[in-house]
User: What shape does this take?
Amino acid sequence: MRIEIPKDKQLTFEMTLPIRWGDMDALGHVNNAVYFRYLESVRVEWLRHVGLELKQTGVGAIVVNAFCNFLTQLEYPGDLLARHYIASPGRSSFDAFVTLARADAPDVICAEGGATTVWFDFDTQKPAPLPDWLRAQFTAAP
Assistant: This one.
């Protein structure tokens, strides 16, 4: 089942990632599990970019589900252009999406994935309202 990424989303961040030799499996292409690491790396760098200190106390972001659509195989060597998007802000959650394309073919999406992220109070172990500074990211230009 392919999960569709919504058309109504806000581009928030771009970065490049290397395809490493060790990312490949015995069949000579990037292992499926590695795509989730790419998605995680982009998500974490975006959170750091907007000023979130990643820690396990106070409040912060947790992922409650994640998916990846594998569209074309990736192989070493090369670099990936990763684009991060956000959408669907709720009281305490939002959806984040990432597209991955080879840097030498930036308009050809090789994989796309996403995650529902919940703003979480680690002390009470309960969801918390999205802070205003994070909510502002949904209308900010990249």
